[in-house]
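dumping this here before i forget
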Amino acid sequence: QVQLVESGGGLVQAGGSLRLSCAASGTTFSSYVMGWFRQAPGKERECVAAISGNSINIYYKDSVKGRFTITRDNAKNTVYLQMNSLKPSDTALYYCATNPARPWGVSSWYPQGYDIWGQGTQVTVSS
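structure:
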């Protein structure tokens, strides 16, 4: 069973940066689509970025384009989310997720497309 562990969250001032990491167990990580999601209190969980196993396909939510960058290091079984120019509206619990059985496609940017989730890491951006 694949397990995901996020790290790197914290409190940052508006305009600052954070890098989230998600370490995955499993020997076939390089074939997994990986997604970063966030959920703010009272709001639905939304995908902010997703990346295919070979990094050729990448998705970003419109509101984070140009500010967030998703990358992966398959040798380290890790996916990253570099977040720059952070805004108070980026405050949320951030999760990484995967579904080893599902290839890249439209479902890659919806929570329903994933069945394995990390525990989440809190990102708080102060104004």
